[in-house]
């Protein structure tokens, strides 16, 4: 079974740096919430991951069908739980696109991207989760 692995290392009193190949990003809390403001919060990165995965999958679907996509914009909005553990209770992707101009064509690409996106499939179906001390 294929696995992906990302390493996060502490970079300040409140932040970590994620290193993936030649890329790195910081995860932190806003200053007003006790963080250093060095990066986005983890939940924001999660939403970027969902939106980015969706876009990447849509581009791949379009490319494999010889469809040119231009002006794609995706607004990811999430609803936070009002009670219980901090979490998102809903995520919505609002998609606009200049090309293809055909509504049917872009709606088909949206449906394909939603079905083929690893992040969306994970959120929709859940996952096993564990956290433990590694020695």
Automatic annotation (TrEMBL):
Q: Which Pfam families match?
A: OsmC
* Organism superkingdom: Bacteria
Name this polypeptide is given: Putative redox protein
Its source organism is: Algoriphagus aquimarinus
